[in-house]
Amino acid sequence: MSPSLLPVTPLDLLRVSRHRIPAHGLTPNTSIQNRPLLIYHGAFAPFPGAAGPGASAVESHMSAVGAALPQWRYTMYSRSHFHSTTHEVLCVVAGRARLCFGGEANPGRVQPVVEKGDVMVVPAGVAHRLLEDLNGGFTMVGCYPPGCQWDMCYGHAGEEEKVQGIKGLKWFEKDPVYADEGPALAEE
Questions:
Q1: What is the per-residue pLDDT for 2?
Q2: d(Cα 139, Cα 126) in Å, to the nearest integer?
Q3: CA within 20 to 30 Å of 13's CA: 48, 76, 157, 165, which one?
Q4: Is residue 42 part of a domain?
Q5: How confident is the model at residue 176 (pLDDT cuts 50, 70, 90)?
Q6: What stretch of H or E contains 60?
Q7: DSSP single-letter state for residue 117
Q8: Tens of pLDDT along 78-133?
């Protein structure tokens, strides 16, 4: 393993949640590309007796894999939003939080609790927001495919052309965490 790659939970032990979230109002969610929201539970598992990797180590790992490059460290906005220009990979590097995917009013929404070590592969068009920071300091590393810049959409009138652009976005050629194997590659 390359020195810049972190030890990750072996694929045969990785628990992955797959969520297909229906469109709601002007928010397409997973319907537009038919790619599920993926949550890799404990992908960046802590070493026995250790607190797990920090933001710098996760950023190095993501850069070394190269499928989704780190662009920021932050929590998640508390307002539902989605991106029309890129898929997003969110790596939890501190804390625990309850999130909402799909929009608060959507009966098909998903509200998982995520924690340090979890990774979310969020297809373009999937609304997401922070509902509750459960222990303070919830922080993620936000990553995007090379050359992609994220935008902000809110499911409002006037965003229809942006939403249609999601149809043409390429999916990952490598899994963002596991490279040549991994759950994102099985979603075709």
A1: 46
A2: 20
A3: 76
A4: yes
A5: very high
A6: helix 55-65
A7: T
A8: 999 999 999 999 999 999 999 999 999 999 999 999 999 999 999 999 999 999 99
Domain tally, the chain: 1
What's the rounded Cα separation, in Å, for the pair 177 and 188?
17
176 within domain boundaries: no
Per-residue CA distances from 103 to 31, 66, 89 (Å): 14, 30, 18
* 180 found inside a domain: no
Residue scoring higher pLDDT (45 or 166): 166
Kindly give, in sequence order, each residue whose CB lies less than 8 Å from that of residue 141, ignoring residues fewer than 6 positions away.
55, 58, 59, 62, 70, 72, 73, 90, 91, 93
pLDDT given for residue 51 in this prediction: 67
What residue numbers bound the domain in which 45 lies? 15-168
What are 109's two structure tokens? 């929404």
- Residue 143, strand partner residues: 70, 89
Beta bridge partners of 76: none
As a whole number of angstroms, the distance between CA 170 and CA 131 comes to 30
CATH number of the domain encompassing residue 46: 2.60.120
Mean pLDDT of 127-148: 97
- Please, which residues bridge with residue 51 across strands? none
Q: Does any domain span residue 154?
A: yes
Backbone torsions φ then ψ of 63, nearest 5 degrees? -65, -40
Q: Are 127 and 103 in contact (CB under 8 A)?
A: yes
